[in-house]
């Protein structure tokens, strides 16, 4: 058993040697008191060459800033708004990985973790703590790191699922900083149309995966008359909470974890965080479980809904970059696309507005130079915009082009059709679908 000590944040991080790789619990539950303590060490010239790994984080991110070049270097598994500018300026970096496999980086030793820094709940009567709103790959980090520091925070909800023993920690720090919250994103008229088109592909008894933001909220608002939906997802927020409380999502048709809401991390209001606290109907599980395509596919009728930056005429999906500029990350898109495709009766949906807010078309002849293909064309089934939904499964390249053009913005269709003809030749115009 490891010796456990309650110490200050400054003392806890003083034990992390220079050159270490450091894991941070992520999203709403970043251990900011430990980051601030590391920043004080850096300002004092007491540490160098720390590499940080995490899912997307909310709040200040000094570990990505130019002023700490050579001292901190961020290498996150997903890029959020707080580090995006610095990643694209080269002061921080992005480590591409399917979220399902992020934990494997630690467990396999591909990343040798020197320290794991995580927010945890207050312990129960058995000395177990919850990772609350950010289980993600933190269980693997706790198992693998040489030094494990836990921040006991009464604002971290005690969520059932994958719990951790207090014996796992070398040092414990007490902090009562509130978790980061995110307000409800109100859908636009276009997003409501996309949500309606997606909802038409969702049937009673289906098991859903979708994320957060205006588009998932639009879809959730269109599902209020559905019945017996399930939820097995990497994350959820307030839009889906309304469906859970209304009884639309009850998990009664799930074969894996029937009657349970399953997720790995959250970002929403305090109402969402309170909802999972000591709630036996919610399981917060590590990413190795939630994003495993084999686990996902064990439920029948899985419907995964993910988004895209752009899609080319063959169905290739770019979801992590704008050209060479990294915008987000691979995330769990392929995990759930493949899990849904393997599920009996499952469907995977790629849903997005046909144009950007600046009027640029998102269904394109070819992806922008440097754009990353997150979901290969062979994995893409349903594609949905505000103009309709098409199924690319079993379709050839020329057929795919015709189908995708049919749901592009009407003002872009002529140019896209001309590009398809130039690419595929005269037979394309004679092709019927």
Nutshell version of this structure?
The strands form 6 sheets. This protein has an 8-stranded parallel sheet, with helices on both faces. Strands 16-14-12-11-17-22-24-25 form an 8-stranded mixed sheet, sandwiched between helices. Strands 19-18-23 form a 3-stranded mixed sheet, covered by helices on one side. 28% of the residues lie in helices and 20% in strands.
Could you characterize the architecture of this molecule?
The protein is an alpha/beta fold and 433 residues long. The protein folds into two domains: 5-174, Glutaconate Coenzyme A-transferase (3-Layer(aba) Sandwich), CATH 3.40.1080.10; 189-430, Glutaconate Coenzyme A-transferase (3-Layer(aba) Sandwich), CATH 3.40.1080. 28% of the residues lie in helices and 20% in strands. The protein has 15 helices and 25 strands. The strands form six sheets. The protein has an eight-stranded parallel beta sheet, with helices on both faces. α7 packs parallel to α8 (238-245) and α13 runs antiparallel to α14. It starts with a strand and ends with a helix.
| Residue windows where pLDDT falls under 50 for at least 5 positions | none
Looking at the structure, the CATH topology of the largest domain is Glutaconate Coenzyme A-transferase
Number of helices: 15
Q: Compute the gyration radius: what is it?
A: 22 Å
Q: Give a quick account of the main beta sheet: strands, pairing sense, barrel closure.
A: 8 strands, parallel
- List the strand order in the largest sheet: 1-10-8-6-2-3-4-5
Q: Which superfamily, in CATH terms, is the homologous superfamily of the largest domain?
A: Acetyl-CoA hydrolase/transferase C-terminal domain
